[in-house]
Amino acid sequence: MRFQYPWLLLLLLLTPGLVFLRAWRRRRPSLSFSDGAALGRLPATWAVRVQRFLPVVFGLGFACLVVALARPRTGLEENLVRAEVRDIVLLVDVSTSMRAEDLSAAGRRLDRLAAAKEVIERFIKGRRDDRIALVAFSALPYTVSPLTLDHGWLVRQLSRIETGMIEDGTAIGDGIASAVNRLRESRAASKVVVLLTDGFSNRGVLTPESAARVARALGIRIHTVGAGGSGPVRAPIRDAAGEVRYVLQESGIDEAGLAAIADTTGGRYFRAADFAALEEVYARIDTMEKTRIDVRDYTRYEERFAPFAILGLVFLLGERLLSLTRLGRLP
Fold it and tell me: Does the pLDDT value for residue 174 go beyond 90?
C-alpha cells in the first residue's frame, strides 16, 4: 500500500495529545457538591468503566480520518513485453555413426547422439519465448516435433530419438529441406536452423548446397555443427551372434561443406570435438540468437481511503452519541 500524500501522516502525532485533552475535559466535575468524599466511596458501575474509553474511541476516529486524508492506494503492476519472436529448427543427425563414443564427459560414457541430446535439452530450456521444432535425419528426414512453445513436450520427444530409427545414411540436403519446410510459412522476425552432424552427405535427393540456397532465398539462417573427433573412434557394433562389441572405425566430418552451408545462409560453422566444446558451441549459438525483449512497466492504482474514512466517521460519531447518553454525563 502507498500513500499519495504521506506527509499528512505527521498529523497522527497529534493523536495522543487530543486523547489526553479529551480525557482531561471529561474529568472536570459535572456536579457541584460540598464534599465529594462520600461520592468517591460509591461502587464503580459499568458505565463509569466504559466512560474511560470514550477518549480512545475519539483518538481512533481521528487517526482513521488522517490515514484517509493521506490517500492510501494499492498498485497493480503490469508489464508490457515486446519481443523479437524467433522460430528455430533443431536438425539432428541420427545415423549409426552417431554411436561413436568420443564425446564422453566427466567419467560418463556417452555416444555422440546422447551427448548432443543432453546439450540440446539445456538449449531448449533456455529459450522459453521461442518456438522450436525438432527434425531428425539419416537417409531420410523425420519431423519429431513441429514448431511449438510446449518445450516440456519437446524435451520428451528429444529423449525418444535414437540412432537406427530411420534407414541409415546421411542425407544432409534432404534434412535441411525438411527443416526449411517447417519454417516456410513462419512470420517470425528471425528463422534459424541449427544443424548437427558427424559426417559427409552420402544419401538423399537434394544436395546440401542446393538446400542452402533455398534456405537463403526464404531468409532462413543455418548454423552448422560438426560433432565428434577425426580418425579412428571407438564405436559399438552388433555381431552376427547379436553380441555388442566395440571396434575402431574411421570418422570424418565434411567441415568444408558445413562451412559452405553456413556461409551461404549467413550463419556460422562450429566444430565440437569433445563434450565441453559441444556445450560451448550451443552456448555461443544461444547468445547469438538471443531474443531481444523490451519491457515497459505500468502501475494501476486503486483508492483505499474509503474504508478508513468510513471507520473514522463511525468512531467519531459513535463517541459523540455515547457522550450524550449517561456514559458522558456521569461525574
Answer: yes
